[in-house]
Structure formats: structure tokens, C-alpha cells
Design brief:
Elements (H helix, E strand, L loop, with lengths): L1 H24 L2 H26 L8 H4 L9 H7 L4 H36 L5 H7 L2 H4 L2 H12 L10 H4 L6 H4 L2 H26 L2 H9 L4 H29 L3 H7 L7 H10 L3 H28 L22 H26 L16 H4 L16 H34 L3 H12 L6 H12 L13 H25 L4 H8 L4 H12 L1 H16 L3 H6 L7 H10 L3 H26 L10
Helix pairs in contact: 2-16, 2-19, 2-20, 2-21, 4-5, 4-16, 5-6, 5-11, 5-13, 5-15, 8-11, 8-14, 8-17, 8-28, 11-13, 11-14, 12-13, 13-16, 15-16, 16-21, 17-28, 19-20, 19-22, 19-25, 22-25, 23-24, 25-28, 27-28
């Protein structure tokens, strides 16, 4: 019996050796192992570092914790969760975050569902144009609208230049100018496109013959909507809701601009404040809480997607997409969509544009209009003596933006293609699973928490690496890691559609692995590579949460420089910079759609 066991063990070793020989015959697996080590260091280690900060004594806190620096402690958890200041530091920001997210979702559903129905299932005038126009708010930075709001409603609570409404003789109350209400309204307008996209696309795919059958059987429109349409639309609607909730968790810019004047804090701004005051341990607790909420949200979304399989219809050949004729309601419906576009895009952008060419807010006289904030000289401000287009700091921030975001995007795109190649081609399945999961993990972590993790890891020298804080390198590394979910998914999806035959033919002809990658894989997958570069580039251009913690004045990008102008109360100049960021983000989106022959509103306009 022992002889059989030895023979079986020997055959097992032979199989293992054979698999290792197959796995190492091509450098695919070795490249995959190198990338696994890279992403473990760029993604897993920073997150582990900041979570460790929450339970280890930080330098300078030895006396408070009663342990040496680096020793285990529950002091920061106690301080954040149960101490007398825990309410201000954690629980109130947590409640504000959750309540704002819940109210944002409710308002987005109320605004988005009728718009989705109008552009996907009716004969509303201009519905193809509105299908794209109504998702423009998401193409622009969220805090663009926050600056427009404060330009309109700012009052004397924080001093400085008055807002337009106050300039006209009315003083907006604090609850209207700052805090919960404006933050909720702005986030709802910014994320309503999620409802329009996901819910509208599901409506477009809905078979109108189901409605016809129910109507023949005598069901009323209300009964059809309640018993047939809404249950089948439930998965798409819930996915949009979960996605909005996850996005609200890490939203920083809107809460910073509109919450700080009245001390209305969410988790993201509380985290930022604690990092600024060098409360690293407490920041670790807050970052961990934001991460945990993000992970739970995405797990709920994954579970709901599995549940969504129950909501299917049978028989695709007979599917019909019949538009509902609005009749006399056609013009009012078009007017409603136009009003939505005006409120979410037209009015905010127009407000920002006008504010940059006026000396005094809301004074519409010829003498009040000026281009000083764009190209003026010898301005009567302390830290900004010229218009932004003549200011060296602006061009330095613009160059930093293009260099940092461009470098990170190109690197992310190439790494994403390599990840896709390894995941699909390697015979070592655990390696493929690890790469797939680790590159998606940053999607579960809001940007503000991810930035805090990088600050925790790279603020000091570790091993052979010097301290990177204050350099462009930390921004590029953080952005590469943060954008890998988009780049890797683009690479994996592309490689799953590419068969092995072209490479095998080249291999028979004597072509090496690198030659095959350069001459066959990359040219064939150039469209996916462009997508893997452009998506991170567009996201990075308008990003704020990741940069606001890691950037210093010498490494300012456009978003952080404009935020510094907001802090200085240089409203017109800040608005001008934000307009340029919005133009870059929107233009980049259009270019990406043109190059990749895709459309964010695909399926909504018919």
C-alpha cells in the first residue's frame, strides 16, 4: 500500500513539475508575478499602513497611550468612538455622511426616473439631444456646482465678497447658503445621470409587448407600472442607488466648499481636518470607517446583481421597443427636460462664467464687466496680482496636471493591458484571480481614504525608498493605483475577446513574447488601450479628493490650486480655473467617445 502511495506522490510531483514548466515556458506568468508584487505594494500595503496607524502609537502620542511609538494601542479607537469628543469627531460626521447620501439618493431618484422614461420611452421633442445633455453634470467636477451655488447664495457668515442674491438686496439664510441643503441638492444633480443611464437603459430594453398583453387583459396603466414595469426595472434602479451611495461616501469638494463655513462636516472633511492637524491615528480610524462603508456598499451591490437574475424576460426575438406618444403633454415634457438641463448645467455654468467677468457681483452694467481675472495686470489683491492666464502659478499647476495625470494614465493603460493579458493567458489561476481582485480593490476605497493611506506609507522613508511626500512621484503612484480598476477592466475585457490563434501563428514562425506583444497584441488592442488611458485621464483631470491630501504648493494641480484660491476668497479667479477644469473634463470625454466610438448615453436616445 505504501508503494502505491509513493507512486501516487511521485506522479503528483511530476504533474506539478510539468505545470511549473508550462507556466514558466513563456514570460507571461513571470510578468504576472512582477505585477502582483507591484500592486500588492501600491494598493495593499498603503491600505494596511493606514489601518495599522489606527491601532499603533504614533510619534508624539506615547504619553497619551502609555506605550512606546509603534506599540499596539486602542487609544485612537477610544478617542474616535467613545470619548467626549467622539460625537464631533466621528459620529456627527458619520450621521451627516449617511443622511446626505440617503437624501441625495431620494432626490436623484425623484429627478432621474421621469427623465429616464422621457428620453427612453416617449416621443418627447429632442429626446436624443437630451439623452446626452442630461448626463453632462456627471462629466463636470461636482464642486463646480458648489462654487456656482456659493457665488449665488453666499452671505456675510464667512465675510469676503458677497453673493449675487445678497448683492441684489436679499440676505440668504445660512441653511440655504451652506450646509446640508445645498450639499444634498448639488450631489443629487451631479449623480442624477446615474439614474438616467442605468434606469433609462433598462427601460429601453424592456419589451413593450408585456405592457400590451397586460392592457389587453384589462390592467390599468398604474397596475402595469406597479406589477410589471417596476419589478423588472428594480435591479437597474437599485444598482444606480448603490453606486450613488458609494460615491457620496468619499465626496470631499462639495462638503468642503459648502460645509466648512457652518462647521457641517462629513467623514471626508473630518478625515482631511485630522490629517491637517497631524492626528494620524484618528485619521486611520476615519479612513477605515470610510473604506468599510465602501466595501459593504459594493458587496451589497454584488449580492443584488445575483438577485437580479430572477428579473428576466423570456423571448428576445419578439421584443419590441415602442415609444409612448405624449400627445398634448409633449411640449410640457420637453419643457421639463429643458428646465432640468438649465438647473443642472446651464445656470451653474452661466453663473461661473459671468462671475469671472464682473468686478461686483450681480451688477449688470457695462462698466462692471472686465477681463481682469483672466488677463488683467496689477490687480488689487495680495496673492494674485494678475489674471490667471498671466499667472505663473496657473501654468505650473496646468503643467503639473498634464504631466502627473498624463503619466499616470498612460502607465495605468499599459499596466491594465498587461493585467488583462496575464489574467486571460496565464495557466496559474490563483495568480489570475489575485490580479483581477487586487486591481479592482481601489474602487472599493473612496479617494480621500486612499490618499490618506498613501500619506501614511510614503510620508517617511521606508527601506530603500525615500520620503515621497511633496514630490510628484507620490501623486503619480497614487493616481496609477487609484485608476487601475478602470484600466484593468478595460484590459481584461479586451483580452477575453482576443483568441490565441494570432499569437500561436507568430510563435510557430519564431516570434518571441515581447515581439508578439508589440507587433500583434498592442496593435489589435489599441482601441482598448486608448480607453484604458483616456478614462483615468478624464477622471484624474477633475479629481480633487486624491490630490487634496497629497499635493503641496510646489506640486499643485489645477484642482488643488483652485481650492487654494477658494480659501483665499478669490472667487472670480477660482471660478475661472474651475471653468477650465470643467472644459478639459468635458472635452476629454467627448474626445474619448469619438476615439473609442462609444457614447455615455448609448441606448437612451434610440
Amino acid at each position: 500500500m505504501s508503494g502505491e502511495a509513493e507512486a501516487f506522490a511521485g506522479s503528483g510531483r511530476m504533474r506539478l513539475l510539468y505545470r511549473l514548466r508550462v507556466a514558466t515556458r513563456e514570460p507571461t506568468t513571470l510578468v504576472g508575478l512582477a505585477m502582483a508584487a507591484l500592486f500588492a505594494y501600491l494598493i495593499v500595503v498603503p491600505i494596511a499602513a493606514i489601518l495599522l496607524d489606527a491601532v499603533t502609537t504614533q510619534f508624539g502620542d506615547e504619553r497619551r497611550t502609555g506605550t512606546a511609538a509603534g506599540g499596539w494601542t486602542l487609544y485612537y479607537l477610544h478617542r474616535s468612538l467613545v470619548s467626549p469628543i467622539a460625537g464631533v469627531m466621528f459620529w456627527q460626521p458619520l450621521w451627516n455622511t449617511l443622511s446626505v447620501a440617503a437624501t441625495t439618493i431620494g432626490l436623484a431618484v425623484i429627478l432621474g426616473t421621469p427623465m429616464a422614461w422621457l428620453v427612453s420611452r416617449t416621443d418627447m421633442l429632442g429626446r436624443r439631444w437630451f439623452a446626452t445633455a442630461l448626463i453632462v453634470p456627471y462629466m463636470l467636477p461636482a464642486w463646480t456646482f458648489a462654487l456656482a451655488w456659493t457665488t449665488l447664495f453666499k452671505n456675510r457668515t464667512v465675510g469676503g465678497q458677497q453673493g449675487w442674491i445678497e448683492a441684489l438686496g436679499f440676505s440668504p439664510p445660512d441653511w440655504l447658503a451652506y450646509g446640508r441643503l445645498p450639499i444634498t441638492v448639488i450631489l443629487a444633480l451631479h449623480y442624477t445621470p446615474f439614474i438616467i443611464l442605468l434606469f433609462g437603459n433598462a427601460l429601453r430594453r424592456f419589451d413593450s409587448q408585456l405592457e400590451d398583453s397586460a392592457r389587453i387583459l384589462g390592467a390599468s396603466r398604474a397596475r402595469i407600472a406597479r406589477s410589471i414595469v417596476l419589478p423588472l426595472m428594480k435591479p437597474a434602479l437599485i444598482s444606480a442607488i448603490v453606486l450613488i451611495f458609494a460615491k457620496c461616501l468619499g465626496e470631499f469638494g462639495v462638503a468642503y466648499v459648502l460645509g466648512l463655513p457652518v462647521k457641517f462636516e462629513v467623514l471626508a472633511t473630518s478625515l482631511y481636518r485630522n490629517i491637517g492637524s497631524r492626528q494620524t491615528g484618528v485619521a486611520g480610524v476615519l479612513a477605515g470607517a470610510i473604506m468599510l462603508l465602501g466595501i459593504l456598499t459594493l458587496l451589497v451591490d454584488a449580492w443584488l446583481l445575483r438577485e437580479a437574475r430572477r428579473f428576466v424576460t423570456v423571448g428576445s426575438k419578439g421584443a419590441m421597443d415602442r415609444l409612448t406618444r405624449l400627445g398634448a403633454l409633449r411640449l410640457p415634457a420637453t419643457g421639463l427636460a429643458g428646465l432640468m438641463f438649465a438647473a443642472s448645467v446651464g445656470l451653474p455654468v452661466l453663473t461661473l462664467v459671468l462671475s469671472t467677468v464682473m468686478h461686483v457681483p450681480a451688477r449688470f452694467t457695462a462698466a462692471n464687466f472686465t477681463l481682469d481675472y483672466w488677463i488683467g495686470r496689477d490687480l488689487d489683491t495680495v496673492a494674485l496680482r494678475q489674471g490667471i492666464l498671466l499667472t505663473p502659478d496657473f501654468w505650473r499647476a496646468a503643467w503639473n496636471t498634464l504631466w502627473i495625470v498624463g503619466s499616470a494614465s498612460i502607465t495605468s493603460g499599459l499596466l491594465g493591458l498587461l493585467v488583462g493579458y496575464t489574467v486571460v493567458r496565464t495557466p496559474v489561476r490563483p495568480l489570475a484571480v489575485f490580479l483581477r481582485q487586487v486591481t479592482f480593490f481601489p474602487y472599493l476605497v473612496p479617494g480621500i481614504a486612499f490618499a490618506a493611506a498613501y500619506l501614511s506609507l510614503f510620508a517617511v522613508a521606508r527601506g530603500p525608498l525615500p520620503a515621497l511626500y511633496g514630490t510628484m512621484a507620490i501623486l503619480i503612484l497614487a493616481l496609477i493605483a487609484d485608476q487601475m480598476p478602470y484600466a484593468s477592466r478595460a484590459g481584461i475585457a479586451a483580452m477575453m475577446q482576443l483568441g490565441k490563434e494570432p499569437e500561436e501563428a507568430a510563435q510557430v514562425a519564431g516570434s518571441g513574447w515581447l515581439h508578439r506583444m508589440v507587433r500583434i497584441v498592442v496593435p489589435i488592442q489599441k482601441g482598448s488601450l486608448v480607453t484604458g488611458v483616456l478614462l483615468p485621464f478624464i477622471s484624474g483631470i477633475k479629481g480633487l479628493s486624491l490630490f487634496v491630501i497629497l499635493a503641496v504648493p510646489s506640486t499643485d494641480v489645477l484642482t488643488t490650486w483652485s481650492l487654494r484660491l477658494v480659501d483665499y476668497d478669490y472667487t472670480q479667479a477660482a471660478n475661472a480655473v474651475v471653468l477650465m477644469i470643467a472644459g478639459l473634463a468635458y472635452g476629454g470625454t467627448l474626445v474619448a467617445q469619438r476615439l473609442t466610438r462609444t457614447n455615455l448615453a448609448e441606448g437612451l436616445g434610440g
